Amino acid sequence: MATAFDEMTGVPGATEVREAYVTLKRWLETTPRHLLDTRRSQAELFFRRIGITFAVYGEVEASERLIPFDIIPRVLLKREWEILERGLKQRVTALNRFLADIYGPRECLRAGVLPEDLVYRNPCFRLEMAGVKVPHDIYAHIAGIDVVRVDADTFYVLEDNVRTPSGVSYMLENREVMLRLFPELFEEHRVAPVEDYPDALLASLRSVAPAGAGRDPTVVLLTPGQYNSAFYEHSFLADKLGVELVEGPDLFVRDDVVCMRTTEGAKRVDVIYRRIDDDFLDPLVFRPDSVLGVAGLMSAYEAGNVTLANAVGTGVADDKAVYSYMPEIVRFFTGEEPILKNVPTWRCREREALAYVLDRLDELVVKEVNGSGGYGMLIGPHASRQEREQFRRKLRHAPDGFIAQPTLALSTCPTFVAEGMAPRHVDLRPFVLTGADGCRVVPGGLTRVALKEGSLVVNSSQGGGTKDTWVLDA
Amino acid sequence: MLSRTADHLFWTARYLERADFLARILDATTRLTALPASYGRPGNEWESAVASSGCAAGFYALYDGANEYTVRDFLAFSPTNPSSIRNCLSVARNNARAVRTALTIEMWEAINDAWLELRRFDAKAMDREEFARFLEWVKAVSLAFEGSSHRTMLRNDAYWFTRLGTAIERADNTARILDVKYHVLLPATEQVGGSLDYFQWTTILREVSALTAYHWVYRESVKPWLVADLLILNRQMPRSLTSCYETLVRHLDLIAEAYGMRGASQRVASTTLARLTGTRMEDVFQSGLHEFISGFIADNNRLGVTIAEQYLMP
Amino acid sequence: MRIRIAHVTAYHYDRPVKAVIQTLRLTPRAHDGQHILAWRVEVDGAARLSPGEDALGNRLHVLSAEGTLDSLGVRVEGEVEMLDTHGVVRGAVERFPETVFLRETPLTAPDEALCAFADAAASRGTRDRLALLHHLLEAIHREMTFDTEPTHAATTAAEAFALRRGVCQDLTHVFLAACRHLGIPARYVSGYFLRGDGVVVQEAGHAWAEAYVPALGWVGFDAANGISPTDAHVRVAIGLDYLGAAPVRGARTGGGAEALSVSLRIEQAAWQTQA
């Protein structure tokens, strides 16, 4: 594995400083340690008071845990960001066109852009969506694209998230707490603001209201409820958007129209920003045991009387097996070369690739095609022999379910840890909004940091933390 | 507003009011048992505390008898008693969390801090003094929540449903005490007991924190029919049935006005209020205090059901 | 052969229901071996029906009702003309390529035992897919006993196979799981079956499978009877599994407990239409 690129110094331990970090480095060197300690505990207190928590599955005691926050921001220059931004818009545009195509004319399948099987046999390709017309052909209204950096010029897309991506509340709250704790730093940097994200989100959602909605469409946010790991984010966003936070039982369908139960009677709902998975949306169509959804929702949706954001069936586009075809998908649907690279990926469904992967389990990262959150993943170089053997068996038994990638040397950023300042690996999840008037990316995103020395796993469910992400506006 | 939001607000307020009431029962009972037996202690104060809490059935399924330790454990901490103080606070917090954004930050902090702090109280290691501090803390939590709602909420339907929850629970609690202890308030007991019952009466007043109020209102020594009058009919007394119903009617009217529609809840509440204001204490004693209270508890429950059907879970 | 069907489903609620919504797949489409002479679906006065079509092309009705209902009734009456096509289904509506029907679903996911069973049936030395499917059909029919007791609507193929028991739904799921494990597209069919023994009154509808055979197209396999469907099999809806083809899926608000009564008559109609 190559040496990681350090975003502050370039080469790890070097004395020169990259342009974006000049002011920050000086500040870090001149600010006394005890002051940083104080600010860090103030930040933690702030997060605890507002109740921003993340549930961790399998840990009863820690069912409401804080995600650690690192007070040192991650900094990007405007010119670095602009490349990213163009790449993200291109990618999300392609994803939306891909979805519109496979649920419509299926031209990309006829053209052989990707194997038919990957679509037709994919459980996330929702048969119910075939031929359904969604407003403005937008499927992924909200996308979270996970990006990693490997050198000064290269960003890779690690994963597309176009189902119900989460984390944007951390982007907003991290900035909020930084503004409170380090006003002097903001005086010395011109940081592009992120706080208009909720306004942009609401505008996007309203722009895709169904034709019958009238001039002031009613938008709601549908949550699985307070025991969901991301409930804080749901309630935070509903509050910032100024829309009702509803649960399945708050809604019902009458004559193919979705209504919510209010103290003043039934009220029509036009756009549902849903944060529950397809499988749970409608017990009459998907899982019959779901109590989180709304019976009849799909029939109202198919009738064009309500818009779901994101659309049903987007999961087929962020599947890890489809991911490996993203360069081809981008070229086919935009006619352009992809601006953001894909991580080289071996599809274990292909015999030769599988043989290659089985030979190199100790150097590759193996991922489940339908896994998320860092579960069901093998990081070869860090895994025990036993773990590798376990994956070898899984791969032989069901190779279709896996892909493998090289272990990337994710870039590092200075991070405040127990021993002081130290480089830690980071990734970045920017949020891309798509509405009737096009794509928007709020400058920044959520930087996730692996707090353990040498660790590459940044997922919050696996002990990762977060940082504020700055795009310098100069 | 979403019906479920109104429902959660209503129940948050109810559960906090109930926690406060349980703390008062425990506090007053502890005081009563501290008296020497010759001062009219009937010897079953703890049984009476369980009966007043309204969860006697659950209690006797778990314990052989009522004493300081079993009742304290059951009413304050028991995880199996759905209405223990601990469960009340935790259910109230869950309700509040579900509608976090409908609460003001002050209300949320009052209840969330309480929930976080609750885990620090160790029921097993608690002596009498610590237990007394615990009860004071519970009362302070309810006070902080109600106070912050009063000071910080917009005067809209969210506030009105919160007030309804508090008032309907409070009416129920006052009625329950009267239902359990009505026999010591009957005119006949004056001849039987005289000063012997004095401590029973003052205990009732303490349970609804009205001992001082009594003296201000009646300016005479504690008389059982006046205690009953204070708790049932006195409009100045915030825990009296009449006062609770004035609150209920006022806030139901505000809701009806805002929504432009009156319904069954408004009718049920104003009928009950009219009955309370049209009644004199003599009539109550004549027709039977016990019957009057039982009838009231049923009416109050009916109002709860009606509000739920009309607004909270249509 | 003409078959006449009268199928009445009645729900009785012990407390009034506030709202009911159901999707009904109770209306057949025609194919080369099946002609619909008359068909209608009716509900009680309080409920509304709106017709539609699902993703696979099945005819669908959405039933909805609000208010206070003590009961709900759905009545299906129809008459079809059937031809024996030896199980081959031609001229049916096909919305997706057959590879869609290789998908595993929660109800049809095989376990190791079921995979081993499928592999054993496949290893009987034939390369002909049709012959293989018949081996599989016989094996399931032989191995499993029809029994209404131990399984329910949510029983998986693997569970039923472990019990070696089940109803037509379970046997069909086992067949589907085995086919898909062997790489053969297969799907669930719900419908009606005219019994050969003259019994007219039945307890429930029927279910069988269709598997894809390249030269022939979709071919039916009735695991419960150990035969390919004949002119006695009225084909109503298809799905990846029971849930996708279920005659009724519903949800309701309120109502407490529910009592369900079904009255189903399936009989040959030739004598009557001559009159």
TrEMBL record, chain A:
Which residue ranges does the record assign to the Circularly permuted ATP-grasp type domain? 73-450
Protein name, as recorded: Circularly permuted type 2 ATP-grasp protein
Q: Which organism is it from?
A: Chelatococcus albus
Task: Please indicate which superkingdom the organism of origin belongs to.
Answer: Bacteria
UniProtKB/TrEMBL annotation, chain B:
By what name is this protein known?
Alpha-E domain-containing protein
Give the taxonomic lineage as stored in the record.
Answer: Bacteria, Pseudomonadati, Pseudomonadota, Alphaproteobacteria, Hyphomicrobiales
Q: What residues does the DUF403 domain cover?
A: 1-312
Tell me the superkingdom of the source.
Answer: Bacteria
Organism the protein comes from: Chelatococcus albus
Q: Which Pfam families match?
A: Alpha-E
InterPro entries the UniProt entry points to: ATP-dep_Glu-Cys_Ligase-2 (IPR051680), DUF403 (IPR007296)
TrEMBL record, chain C:
* Cleaved signal peptide residues: none
Q: InterPro entries recorded for this chain?
A: Bac_transglu_N, Papain-like_cys_pep_sf, Transglutaminase-like
Which SMART domains does the record cross-reference, listed alphabetically? Answer: TGc (SM00460)
Limits of the Transglutaminase-like domain: 160-225
Which Gene3D superfamilies does the UniProt record give? 3.10.620.30
PANTHER family membership: BLR5614 PROTEIN-RELATED (PTHR33490), SLL1049 PROTEIN (PTHR33490:SF6)
UniProt-recorded name of the protein: Transglutaminase family protein
